[in-house]
Amino acid sequence: MIAQSNTPGAGPGTVAVAVLDHTELPLWDLYELGMACAVFGIPQPDLADRWYELWLCAETPMAEAPPRAPGGFGFSLRAEYGWEALAEADTVIVPSVPDACVTGEREVPPALVAQLRRAAAAGARMVSLCTGAFALAAAGILDGRRATAHWSHTADLARRHPRVSVDDSVLYVDDGSVLTSAGVAAGLDLCLHIVRRDLGAHVANQLARRLVVPAHRPGGQAQFVDLSVPVTDDDSLAPVLDWATANLEQPLTVEELARRARMSPRTFFRRVQAATGTTPLQWLLNQRLARAQSLLEATDLPVEQIGERSGLGSSTNLRRHFTARVGVTPTDYRRAFTARASAAAR
Q: Is 130 a residue of the active site?
């Protein structure tokens, strides 16, 4: 049902955002709602005719919405469409649901659950941001699937919906037609991933630049959870990781870094994974790719030299890792930013 990005003149279709309690939105809900609107509702330059069509859908559409309730702190919103429009969309996004729906004090509105089921049955791509996963789970859409939510709510999600395979270690899960994200900023990671799927890495990278965020953020929720990692100078990983970042062109090994950190390789492995959400070797690869991106954007060094300076070695090795992670070759990446800089200078 989603238009392919390689179809000439075709756009990626409609994105319907399901809004709950739209007459008085809490701040966190507003953040995720605004994030979805910023990504899917504002076309990238030169793509106005191929961008998404955004629908805001609430239980009561705009013409019938009651005035904002007095008191409290929040923002009011009037949506143009009702929840019944969800079944007509190509992509359906459910941002955070009220806390009471997370704890079980209140059920996700049955009318919304029914419309989410209709949308899924019609072939829509179903997406949740943060605790929006509780709405998809209530509709049975996550049954038998891997899914995530904010790490502080994943235990509740697993307890209340045991048929869902809850993963609290990732920023988002792409399970084909059903996608879920962790909390707050991870929702933006997922939105950019969707743009990358629909319109390609170049468009997603340019959108990320517009939003001043990384196009792809490695790691998982583990790096944001309070793990009580010691922060004293003697115990901190910061000095050895800072040294590694400054010496990426060297052939670094886990054994050498562990020795500098005065730990056994096994302890060092566990500590880095707990602190960063990834393994030491993957962390090194991420830093080297970040260095390569910076050199491609800021210098005219040949790709071979960038491979050496970033510690990735040969140009072939650089191209392989860079393309797998970023989605475009180093040459195409540089060309995109050179063209952008030239356009900005005119």
A: yes
